[in-house]
Write a structure and sequence with these properties.
The protein is mainly alpha-helical and 153 residues long. 54% of the residues lie in helices and 10% in strands. It has 7 helices and 3 strands; from the N terminus they run H-H-E-E-E-H-H-H-H-H. A 3-stranded mixed sheet has the order 1-3-2. A hairpin with a 4-residue loop joins strand 2 and strand 3. Helix 2 runs parallel beside helix 3 and helix 3 packs across helix 7. The longest helix is centred in the last third of the chain and has 19 residues, at 122-140. The chain is globular and about 40 Å long. 27% of the residues are buried.
């Protein structure tokens, strides 16, 4: 079911002609049926991760490291949307178990400890491919050349 569900998201993007990351975030929120909130968090500047998503009862909270690069910001958001759309939080039972056993550990540290920050991990690889595809979709709906800075920014 997830593959068809994700493909429906891509079909919507193609039909609506998304040309920026904010359109994709709004569509993702609509697609999953709850808000996707993006926040820059300064504490992530000192961490080895650029962002993470916390799936809460009433929203998906995407936290990203502050950056002056709109391109990088958009790519990190796209990566985190990949986790949301592929429903990685629903398939990562070990993460929920650790949070139940040690509730005072911040979720981003649990995820890092479980190697979600490593790109050899299946979920991380899937999220990277999602971000790449989102960049290509956005770029295809822009009226300017596809130089690197034109991918998102």
């Amino acid at each position: 079911m997830t593959d068809a569900w994700v493909e429906a998201f891509w079909a919507r993007g193609a039909a609506e002609g998304w040309s920026d990351i904010d359109q994709a975030v709004a569509a993702a929120a609509d697609h999953v049926g709850k808000p996707v909130v993006v926040r820059e968090e300064s504490f992530l500047s000192a961490e080895p991760v650029c962002g993470f998503v916390a799936t809460l009862e009433h929203q998906h909270l995407v936290m990203i490291s502050p950056t002056t690069s709109a391109t990088f910001r958009s790519f990190v958001i796209g990566h985190e949307l990949g986790h949301v759309l592929h429903r990685h939080s629903e398939r990562a039972a070990q993460s929920a178990y650790v949070r139940d056993v040690i509730p005072d550990v911040p979720e981003y540290k649990v995820e890092r400890a479980l190697a979600r920050g490593l790109f050899s991990n299946t979920y991380e690889h899937e999220a990277e491919l999602f971000a790449d595809r989102l960049a290509a979709l956005i770029r295809s709906n822009r009226g300017r050349p596809s130089a690197f800075r034109g991918v998102f920014g």
